[in-house]
Hints:
This protein is mainly beta. It has strands at 6-25, 30-50, 54-66, 70-76, 86-94, 123-134, 137-148, 151-157, 160-165, 170-172. Strand 6 (123-134) and strand 7 form a beta hairpin. It is elongated and about 75 Å long. The termini are far apart.
Amino acid sequence: IQIGLLEANDTARDTISGSLAVRYAVTDKLEIEGRVPYLYRSDRVTTVAQNNNTVTQTFELEGSDLGDVELSARYQITNGARGGPIFVAGARIKSDTGRGPFDVARDSQGVASELATGSGFWGLQGSLSVLYPSDPVVLFANVGYLYNMPRDINRQIGTVTIGEVDPGDSISL
């Protein structure tokens, strides 16, 4: 006796990412950086479902394009004089230049036919790093907050209308 649906998935995901990053020291304590990433993604998902009969489906998706371009700045607040820690403040802005999940091509049912190469949202991040040199190592800690800006998608995907999407924020430690 079989009750319900039995399902098994096998997923293989490959991502290759390369980026061009340029850093420039404006002063002894201020550094700016620009980063331009390029991504190649490939997913293969095989699903085996068994109810009254066995059905096997395999989906293969790819995506390659420019990712989300970033600009950032870091400022060294203290210099670690007299054995004290070094504090570095950072700010970063992330664009939506990559192809986001709501920008990829889809079939008539709304199923994606390619993979996203970006988040699809602008983001702002602030951070504070603490470095403590202690020969022969350097102890390091960082705290940050990333604010992702909501976006009005205003698009119909399949039978669903997507309005405003707020991807949420994140805290890093």
